């Protein structure tokens, strides 16, 4: 097993040569670094688009679907963000790679439902980009269950997780969640609301833990309550993490990643011990 990025993401070494990835970037330095790093790590030959025209031609020349795009905000011929708008309008999953960042810019980017954004302002930028790409390409192996009696909340969390390429199931109640878990033993993460009419989040967590340990399934509790002791109650019930609504997207994705990374590391260690 290898580790990627500064977060220490565990990487199996799988190659993704079949992935079609576009890099919309006019800097020779960064295109060279990105191309070399992705070929070295994942055996991916990226398509470089140095202008908005190149990007349009690259999309039009092939009927093969684009797996992922990495795009600067501004390109020659698209100095006002038209390239990013173009990719988003085509529903192409996109990671923004930019040296321009401030709060208003961040809010605009997140409103476009991009996969992620990476800042060019540090020496780890390309490694962080490689980690984000690897997560997107491998997140489909993770099955996540969302449990919430609010249809709006379920839809919001589901859309966020699907944006990151996770497989998602939803349950409107604790009872339904237990049925789904019984039928889908590949679920590795449950994100459950606290306040539900039939079985609240604490009781659901207890019932799950009666049969499934943290080495098989991670649980994140969520709530809109202002009661800060809810986190302690969730953890004591067998939860692994807790978040208060409203979420900050970056924190939410980080918490999800951390819990799934921990799960993979535990499972890897157990396999190594079984072989030994």
Automatic annotation (TrEMBL):
Q: Which SMART domains match?
A: REC (SM00448)
Residues carrying 4-aspartylphosphate: 193
| Name of this protein | Response regulator
Secretion signal, residue range per the UniProt entry: none
Which organism does this sequence originate in?
Answer: Rhizobium aouanii
Q: Which PANTHER family match?
A: RESPONSE REGULATORY DOMAIN-CONTAINING PROTEIN, STRESS RESPONSE REGULATOR PROTEIN 1
The UniProt record lists the Response regulatory domain at 20-135, 143-260
Among InterPro entries, the record links this protein to: Bact_response_regulator, CheY-like_superfamily, Sig_transdc_resp-reg_receiver
Q: Which residues form a coiled coil?
A: none
Keyword annotations for this protein, in alphabetical order, are:
Phosphoprotein, Transcription, Transcription regulation
């Amino acid at each position: 097993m290898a580790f990627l990025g500064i977060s220490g993401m565990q990487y199996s070494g799988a190659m993704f040569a079949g992935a079609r990835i576009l890099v919309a970037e006019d800097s020779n330095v960064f295109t060279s670094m990105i191309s070399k790093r992705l070929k070295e790590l994942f055996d991916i030959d990226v398509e470089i688009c140095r202008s908005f025209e190149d990007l349009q031609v690259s999309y039009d020349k092939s009927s093969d679907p684009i797996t992922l795009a990495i795009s600067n905000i501004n390109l020659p011929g698209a100095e006002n963000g038209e390239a990013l708008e173009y990719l988003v309008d085509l529903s192409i999953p996109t990671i923004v790679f930019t040296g321009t960042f401030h709060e208003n810019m961040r809010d605009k980017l997140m409103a476009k439902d991009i996969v992620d954004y990476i800042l060019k302002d540090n020496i780890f930028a390309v490694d962080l980009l490689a980690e984000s790409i690897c997560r997107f390409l491998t997140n489909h192996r993770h099955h996540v269950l969302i449990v919430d009696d609010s249809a709006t909340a379920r839809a919001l969390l589901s859309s966020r997780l699907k944006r990151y390429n996770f497989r998602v199931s939803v349950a409107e109640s604790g009872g339904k969640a237990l049925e789904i878990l019984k039928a889908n033993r590949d679920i590795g993460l449950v994100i459950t609301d606290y306040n539900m009419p039939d079985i609240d989040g604490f009781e659901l967590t207890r019932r799950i833990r009666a049969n499934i340990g943290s080495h098989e399934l991670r649980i994140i509790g969520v709530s809109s309550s202002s009661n800060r002791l809810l986190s302690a109650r969730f953890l004591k019930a067998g939860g692994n993490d807790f978040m208060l609504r409203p979420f900050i997207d970056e924190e939410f994705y980080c918490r999800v990643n951390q819990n799934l990374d921990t799960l993979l590391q535990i499972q890897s260690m157990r396999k190594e011990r079984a072989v030994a």
